[in-house]
Amino acid sequence: MSHAADRLDASSYVERVLRADVRAMSAYHVPDSTGLVKLDAMENPYQLPQGLRDELGRRLAQVALNRYPVPSYARLKQAIAARFGVPAGFELVLGNGSDELISMLSVAIAQPGACVLAPAPSFVMYEMSARLAGCGFIGVPLAEDFSLDLPAMLAAIRQHRPAVVYLAYPNNPTGNCFDDSAIEAILREAPGVVVLDEAYQPFAAKSWMARLPEYPNLILMRTVSKLGLAGIRLGYLAGARAWTDQLEKVRPPYNINVLTETAGLFAIEHADELDAQAAKIRDERQALATRLAGVSGVSVYPSQANFLLVRVVDGPATWRGLLDRGVLVKDVGKMHSLLANCLRLTIGTPAESVALVGALSQVLAK
Ligand SMILES: Cc1ncc(COP(=O)(O)O)c(C=O)c1O
After folding, report:
1. What is the dihedral of CA 143, 147, 150, 153, to 10 degrees?
2. Model confidence over 103-119: pLDDT tens digits?
3. Separation of 322 CA from ligand 1 center, angstroms?
4. Cβ distance 171 to 146 under 8 Å?
5. Average pLDDT of the chain, as a whole number
6. Which domains does the chain have, with CATH numbers?
């Protein structure tokens, strides 16, 4: 027996049912880093000490993998709130990485005419997630020195009335924290929610967490990824209950798996270890910045994050030269005209910095 449908190949079905804009997109590209010094993704280069890893292994072995998670995640939320200073009376929503929290926000606001606004360049998922949910996206160029162009931001907010404004604090890929008075002006002007994305908070001198009570339209988003737990995928947002009650409706009920939940709780119990690693990374950031400043042909931008943005004469050729010498960094030059010939270098171990500076000096000496 043969059906007419049997004659169609899979791509014909895809074309028939999938959105044209999705078909035209490219998937988020993660390059193969096997055998390379991996300085492209803002990971913490250190693992937990062996003793703690053994203990975590024992803890994970006790987890009932046959059971669904308990979707309130009350214990994990309490531990996060206590350790990371969530102000009393504010609630949390957990995400499978902050990427998922961004998706939840996009889904929750997606209605005809809704849009998201962020400075540009900034974290690419704000735009990608908004567009996937069918929302508009407005990117407002930063000033030349990567500070917020406040008049342009306020004008765009008045014109487009975005449901969400994202401000990464510090910003990725520029590494700076925006001016607090500019953020205050945006919070006052925005007709919707302003999400301060503090993904890089462990490396920054400042945080807005304690200021949550000041603005009813402020949500604070964080992740444990940069702190040293990128692999477990755990992000959280903190906000007034009026926001979190609604976002809970959009959250897939079991989005935090039991292994992540257990590993997250364990890591928070041992957060001093992670804090010590963050301190080492901050020291290494300073050491690397100083050494890079001594390499001719490299301009280094100040950073409050676990990466340094640098500008060279020929970004793509420098990126390629580093790769040829076994060092993988991120070429951000094509992201935005403000970033022409810029590379983003994740802070690694002192030994990785030596490899990076050595390779870079060789490439630029050619
Ligand atoms: C500003 C910012 N927010 C969020 C994320 C994503 O974090 P997560 O690993 O929790 O999805 C990143 C990752 O690079 C980022 O740069």
Report:
1. 70
2. 999 999 999 999 999 99
3. 24
4. yes
5. 96
6. 29-48+273-365 (3.90.1150.10), 67-269 (3.40.640.10)
CB atoms within 10 A of CB 335: 17
Give the number of the atom of ligand 1 that is nearest the alpha carbon of residue 41: 14
What's the predicted TM-score (pTM) here? 0.95
What is the 201 CA–ligand 1 centroid distance (Å)? 11
In this prediction, residue 4 carries a pLDDT of 58
User: Can you read off the two tokens belonging to residue 324?
Assistant: 């040829």
Q: Which residue among 99, 221, 309 has the greatest number of ligand 1 atoms within 8 angstroms of its CB, and so is best to mutate?
A: 99
Residue 40, both tokens: 């492209």
Q: How far is the CA of 114 from the centre of ligand 1 (A)?
A: 23
Query: Which residues form the pocket of ligand 1, taking CB atoms under 6 Å from any ligand atom?
Result: 42, 97-99, 123, 168, 172, 197, 199, 223, 225, 230, 235
| Residue 5 pLDDT grade (very low, low, confident, very high; cuts 50, 70, 90) | low
Tell me, in angstroms, the distance from the centre of ligand 1 to residue 349's CA: 21
What distance in Å separates the CA atoms of residue 301 and residue 299, rounded to the nearest whole number?
7
CA 14 – ligand 1 centroid, Å: 30
Q: Can you give the pLDDT at residue 130? A: 97
2-9 own/partner pairs: CB under 8 Å, 24+ apart: none
Site to substitute for ligand 1 among 94, 98, 171, 203, most atoms within 8 A of C-beta:
98
Q: What percent of the chain has pLDDT over 70?
A: 98
The atom number, within ligand 1, closest to the CA of 122 reads 1
Distance from C-alpha of 321 to C-alpha of 307, rounded to nearest angstrom: 19
- Say if residues 244 and 81 touch (Cβ distance below 8 Å): no
pLDDT on residue 366:
76
